[in-house]
Design goal:
Helix content is 43%, strand content 12%. The chain has 501 residues and is an alpha/beta fold. The termini are far apart.
């Protein structure tokens, strides 16, 4: 693709869309420096190029490049508005405003997906056969979304449900998780070579009653399949943390902590309210029994270990400043981060030094097999969450491993996931709502080993008894939601919010 975009620019140097796509190719190849250079060039040539502006901001977040952070906030405020179309996902990490998220997503959907829906040759399946649910995703392989969902696939009630998986990802056929998924569903369809219309038609021929979009506007999505209407009922779930703002998406799966009444209006879909947490989990996930020591993981044997394994694009100067103040006040403490890219590490080292912290107190964890990654959480003392975009599957990893997570709850979907998880686990005392309370609680827990020990013991007790990790109960609730929305459709009722108990 990179070579093709270079050739296109040789033919027409003013082709800014090719220039932006070239930047995207360099990003996917891991050359963030060249990608950023080309995004900036595209913006110089077309200052109102919303797509390039959004992706430049997202790339700088990936690199933790905050050199023009304050100026970028003005750019973010206009993206998706004033004619500047922008990828909604790229903005989720940069702005915590559910109302603006909905407006941006709605404009994006209406501009990008003006497709005529396919007509159904047959109606919904009768009550005499199993309800057919189709899950659509590019990520049917070793991927965080599948780490959460595999337990649901394996526990669906096959007497009442027939499960289809529609995969449009590529190059993962030899993956253990993919093989496990194939073995857990009734039908696995590889639609990666089909266009959106053909994929939707296949879903029609399969007689899918409910189509579940597991990607939303995240990377490699195929939202167009849903714009053609793959099934009479379409559900936005799990992969994209927010409303899709699209008239072809009928429902979204959430919970009352995630979206309280005061924010309900900012979601265009009707709602399936789960009685506990909206997030699926797999309570059979294995944790390695490999013996690990702090020194083997590059950590000091003594001293408090603050852990942040969130993706680098979720970190902003706001959280980082708090973390550095904690390091200043807790002697011999370190910040344990997830290794992302060389630019991120260099920039965070520089930001730490600018705040008076020796960069050696920032330690980056190497990528290791998942079971070992879960085990290494036990070497840390406290997981510190990010604000605008919380830890999602990353928080599940920490909690399942027995590591307490401290979160700060905001307004948008992505900023409230940590609170939803902790409430469902019976650990609401770790949920804060202001920067000041977050910092004060982190300092208190790091300064009081006995208080933190009590929380760790509570987490250990609740881990196998609280709703968050009750995979069977969650599956039954989700299935009840599917039956409710299917029943409304069959009975000729308009879609409406569903409250599960």
């Amino acid at each position: 693709a990179k070579d093709c975009f270079h050739r296109a620019l040789e033919i027409n140097p003013d082709f800014v869309e090719a220039l932006s796509n070239l930047a995207g190719s360099y990003k996917d190849l891991g050359n963030y420096e060249k990608a950023l250079m080309h995004y900036k060039e595209a913006i110089r040539n077309k200052p109102d190029f919303g797509e390039a502006l959004a992706m430049k901001q997202h790339l700088e977040a990936l690199m933790c490049d905050w050199s023009d952070y304050e100026e970028s906030l003005d750019v973010i405020s206009s993206l998706g508005f004033s004619g500047l179309e922008a990828d909604p996902f790229a903005i989720l990490t940069l702005e915590d405003s559910p109302g603006r998220h909905r407006l941006r997503a709605s404009r994006y959907a209406s501009n990008k997906y003006q497709y005529l829906p396919l007509q159904f040759d047959v109606g919904l399946g009768s009550s005499s056969r199993r309800l057919r649910v189709g899950y659509f995703s590019p990520d049917f392989h070793d991927h965080p979304v599948m780490h959460l969902l595999i337990g649901i696939f394996e526990r669906h009630d096959r007497d009442d449900f027939e499960i289809y998986a529609y995969s449009y990802g590529r190059g993962k056929d030899d993956d253990d998780m993919r093989r496990r998924i194939i073995g857990s569903v009734d039908h696995f369809r590889d639609i990666s070579e089909m266009d959106d219309s053909d994929a939707a038609n296949l879903s029609h021929r399969d007689g899918i009653d409910i189509a579940v979009d597991l990607a939303g506007y995240t990377k490699n999505n195929r939202t167009g399949i849903f714009a053609y209407r793959a099934a009479p009922i379409q559900v936005n779930y799990l992969g994209y943390p927010g409303t899709m703002g699209a008239d072809f998406m009928d429902y979204i799966v959430i919970d009352k902590v995630l979206v309280p009444d005061e924010y309900r209006e900012h979601y265009s879909e009707k709602v399936i309210y789960m009685p506990n947490c909206y997030m699926a989990t797999d309570n059979l996930r294995a944790i390695s029994d490999r013996v690990m020591t702090r020194s083997s993981m590059g950590l000091p044997e003594h001293g408090f270990v603050f852990c942040v394994f969130n993706n680098s694009y979720k970190i902003s100067p706001r959280e980082f400043g708090i973390w550095m103040r904690l390091l200043q006040r807790i002697e011999h403490s370190v910040l344990w981060l997830r290794r992302a890219n060389k630019w991120c590490e260099e920039n965070l080292y520089r930001e730490a030094q600018a705040r008076g912290i020796d960069s050696s107190r920032l330690i980056f964890a190497d990528r290791i097999p998942l079971t070992e990654h879960l085990a290494q959480h036990r070497l840390a003392d406290l997981f510190l969450d990010t604000f605008t975009y919380n830890a999602h599957s990353t928080a599940i990893d920490a909690l399942w491993s027995g590591l307490p997570v401290l979160t700060r709850m905001g307004a948008g979907f992505a900023a409230r996931v940590g609170g939803s998880l902790l409430h469902s686990l019976g650990l609401s005392e770790l949920v804060t709502t202001t920067d000041e309370d977050y910092e004060a609680l982190a300092l208190s827990l790091a300064s009081d080993p006995d208080r933190l020990s009590v929380i760790r013991e509570k987490l250990a007790d609740n881990r196998l008894t609280a709703p968050l990790f009750d995979t069977i109960q969650f599956t039954r609730h989700l299935e009840a939601g599917y039956r409710e929305i299917h029943g409304r459709y069959v009975d000729g009722f308009e879609p409406d919010d569903i409250w599960l108990t």
